[in-house]
Specification:
Elements lengths: L6 E10 L3 E5 L6 E9 L1 E5 L2 E5 L3 E5 L5 E5 L2 E2 L5 E2 L2 E9 L1 H8 L6 E3 L4 H15 L7 H19 L6 H16 L6 H8 L3 H12 L3 H19 L4 H7 L5 H12 L3 H10 L2
Antiparallel strand pairs: 1-10, 2-7, 3-6, 3-10, 4-5, 4-7, 6-11, 8-9
Helix pairs in contact: 2-3, 4-5, 4-6, 4-7, 5-6
């Protein structure tokens, strides 16, 4: 399988602020791996339109009908906005053919927005964007790691244990609402349990607190926007759920060892 060819046609990161409707009734000419990282949109699965939220990974083979709808959503503040962020990879080749056929693959699975998965998408994209790239196989290695990570997450679904199911619903709530102010009470109420139980259940399942995970989601959301969007740093902080730019600046510097401005400058210098 390692000796088979693999061709990454394109890889990128999209932030949508305007409505979009893409439809391929006869399917794509290539494979698509797409990860929703922020906001919401919709796709057609098995003939029905389904909601896509952060952590939803789409897998489409060539000739499979594909439809994507990005339109206005009402946020927690009652505002109607268009907001959707995603990584995408289009690819073809014998290697991906063999990987796809190893097992039955649903068009949508839920994956964690971890540095492992998000980082693989990011590295593949950055490698593909290099003007002069003497080592194209690096992106292929990242792609293979991503596919193995997808396989591992596929084996873990569905989640049968009820307490674990509740913990993942809490995690999904945080990922879906991290861009907006919310309280632990909101997350606990969403799954119908007390705050105390929610806090302990989340900690036992993921070995981190709900507050710390919320901060991690927000800081990673902000980092993607710093690198790949034209938003001002103040708008990045606000749209990533931080109550103030000063707090965002402090947290970001502690996490990455430099200010948001320096991080953006370094990222763009290394492109």
């Amino acid at each position: 399988m390692d000796n088979q060819n693999l061709n990454i046609l394109t890889a990128g990161y999209s932030v949508h602020r305007k409505p979009l409707h893409v439809i391929h009734t006869d399917g794509l000419d290539h494979y698509l791996i797409r990860l929703q990282t922020s906001g919401k949109c919709r796709t057609r699965l098995n003939g029905k339109i389904e909601l896509l939220e952060p952590g939803d990974l789409l897998l489409f083979a060539p000739k499979e009908p594909y439809e994507l709808i990005i339109d206005a959503e009402e946020n927690q503040l009652g505002e109607t906005t268009v907001s959707s962020g995603d990584y995408y990879i289009f690819l073809i080749g014998d290697w991906i053919d063999s990987w796809w056929k190893k097992q039955k693959r649903p068009n949508k699975i839920k994956v964690p927005l971890s540095e492992g998965i998000v980082g693989a998408f990011r590295q593949i994209m950055l490698e593909q964007q290099r003007i002069s790239n003497p080592s194209p196989e690096i992106a292929e290695y990242y792609l293979k790691i991503l596919c193995m990570d997808i396989d591992r997450n596929l084996l873990q679904q569905p989640l049968h244990a009820y307490p674990t199911y509740l913990a993942h619903r809490l995690k999904n709530y945080i990922e879906e609402n991290a861009a907006f102010p919310f309280k632990l009470e909101d997350a606990a109420s969403h799954v119908g349990i007390s705050v105390s139980r929610a806090v302990h259940l989340f900690k036992d399942t993921f070995n981190t607190s709900m507050i710390q995970y919320t901060l991690e989601v927000r800081i990673n959301m902000a980092r993607e926007r710093i690198i790949f969007s034209p938003l001002s740093l103040e708008h990045v902080a606000e749209s990533s759920g931080f109550p103030s730019y000063n707090y965002f600046h402090k947290v970001f510097r502690k996490r990455f060892g430099m200010s948001p401005k320096q991080y953006r400058q370094n990222a763009r210098t290394n492109e």
